[in-house]
Amino acid sequence: EPEVTQTPSHQVTQMGQEVILRCVPISNHLYFYWYRQILGQKVEFLVSFYNNEISEKSEIFDDQFSVERPDGSNFTLKIRSTKLEDSAMYFCASLQGHGYTFGSGTRLTVV
Amino acid sequence: ELKVEQNPLFLSMQEGKNYTIYCNYSTTSDRLYWYRQDPGKSLESLFVLLSNGAVKQEGRLMASLDTKARLSTLHITAAVHDLSATYFCAVDSMDSNYQLIWGAGTKLIIKP
Question: For an engineered disulfide with A103, which of A6, A36, A47, B96 has Cβ 3.0 to 4.6 Å away?
Answer without folding.
Answer: A6
